[in-house]
Every structure is written in structure tokens, then in C-alpha cells.
């Protein structure tokens, strides 16, 4: 089944381009209880995804207004640049990708058990960035293991990385894990955006001032030289930051990977996460129980917090904040709304915090 949503980021009048993709999995799939197939969970190292980077990436700044006088800027890879790379790979028989993204893009935003919308930046991810900025003093001092589920373009994680790199590196290690259903989303947008975040934090990008780039004849582009990659890695090391990636479905297998191979549902506090991030992950009623399991078995019982951004209800698909909260509370977790966003008569959006009761 495929879906077309009519909402995405609209910051300062900028609409994110709508794109759908077709994916033909070439890796083994697992079956759900209903008999449908899903991509199994896999762990990926930073080095593995770096080896899959393109030589150049085109980017543009996304401006997220925090207050009337303060704006957060996050550079992100342009969607047309992703399309160009995919078309080049389709024309190159030697390209080795775990999944083949069709160059024939459609208007589908979601294709169940195939593609979960990760190439687009959804508006709730901007809401989550705003809340992370508001609560920065809290998570900077307390979060040493951070997990973003359904990361896609990873705007929240990019903001966190920009923030951590803008302050002196400490002795306390920080581990950042980014999970998306599709490995190709991780290599095409997640990692490139993290590198852009590093370059922005270190003032190494061409101008990202929207007043300068808006209306420019050419989109800014950066060459991913070996020097840039080496500097990226050394900067992470100097700030005591490590990054890993997960692809595939939310499942006992993914939980086991997160916990270093311990069999589900065994957990250890040392491998639990102190901060969990997710946006637009509860649109499907069928996946909410799995998402709740991911929270229960990955978020620390000792002061761990999950920041969840979502629309109140997803018309045409069926998911809702109410359904999610009902399941969370059945597990004896608390839910507190910390941010509400609404434009005109549109659907309300919220950011809530989940923690153990």
C-alpha cells in the first residue's frame, strides 16, 4: 500500500519538494505477523557509509524560526541532488547498492514495508529541533547516548551535532545512533546532512545565509574531499563523539543490535539511551506497538527521555497521538506535551516527552 501526504516543511515559504520512490529490496526480508515482508535490521558503521558518499553534494540552508529574533539554520542536501545521484547509479551497472531506488519517482510519500518517507524533511522534525533548542541545557549536560528513530534527513540529530561541535569537547563520550528503515536513505541524506552540520558548525561551508542564497543562480555545492572527511572524523574524535547507523524494521532484532547482541528482551543500563528522538513516526496504527517497544527497550529507566514530535491525527492513514499515548501509559510511561504548533485550521502538531513513571 502507498500513501501521499499533503504536509511537509514549509519554513519561510519554502516547500520541500514532494517525491515518492520505488524500492526493490535485494537483501533478505522478514515477514510480519500479517504475512507482509519487511527489511530486517542491520547495523552500519560510519566508515561503511562514508565509503558510499558521492564526490559532491548540493545543499541549501533550512531556516527554522525559534523566536521573533532567533533563527536556527541547518544545511541539508538538496533533493534534486539525490535524484541526480540515483539516476547516475541506475545508469552505472557497477553501482553496488543494498537496495535499488528507481529513478522513476512518483508522488508517493510512503510505500508500506518498502519506503518510509526518509528522503523528505517533515515539518514535525522542525518542531523537534525547536524543542531541543529550548531544552539544550538539559540534554547537553545529561545525554551521552542519543538515538533517533526514523531519522530520514535527521534534522534533530544534525542540530544536536552542530550544538555539540560548537562547544569545547568534554571527557564524557557521546554516542549518536541514527536509525532509518532504508539503508539508502542513510547514505543519501542522513550522513551527508551530518557532514554538512559539521561543516556549518566549523564555519567551513560556502554562505548559508538565506538572504544571500535565495534567488542565487547556482545552488551551493561542496566537494567531499579526503581532507574534509578526515577533518570530520578527527573533529568527532576530539569531541569524544561516535556515530553509528541502523537500517531495517523496528523489531527484536534491532533491539538486540542496539544492546550489542543481547537477546531480546534482555537489556542492560549501559547500552540504554538517555535521549530518544522521533518525528512523524506514529502515522500508521500498525507500527505504533513496535515503536512503543523500541522506546521501552532502548530508553533508560534512569532519567531517560524521549522527545516525540507528531501530528495529533494522520487523516487517511489512521495513526494518532492519542493511540500512541494510550499504549505508552499502558506500559507505565509518562507523556507530557511540551510544545504545540498549529496554523489556521490545520491539524495541530505536538512535541511530547516520554519518561518512565
Automatic annotation (TrEMBL):
Record protein name field: protein-histidine N-methyltransferase
A GO cellular-component term linked to this record: cytoplasm
Domain of life (superkingdom): Eukaryota
Gene Ontology biological process: methylation
Single GO MF descriptor: protein-L-histidine N-tele-methyltransferase activity
Record keyword Nucleus present: yes
Coiled coil: none
Key words, A-Z: Cytoplasm, Methyltransferase, Nucleus, S-adenosyl-L-methionine, Transferase
Organism: Arthrobotrys conoides
Broadest EC class assigned to this enzyme: transferase
Gene3D superfamilies documented for this protein: Vaccinia Virus protein VP39
Family: Belongs to the methyltransferase superfamily. METTL18 family.
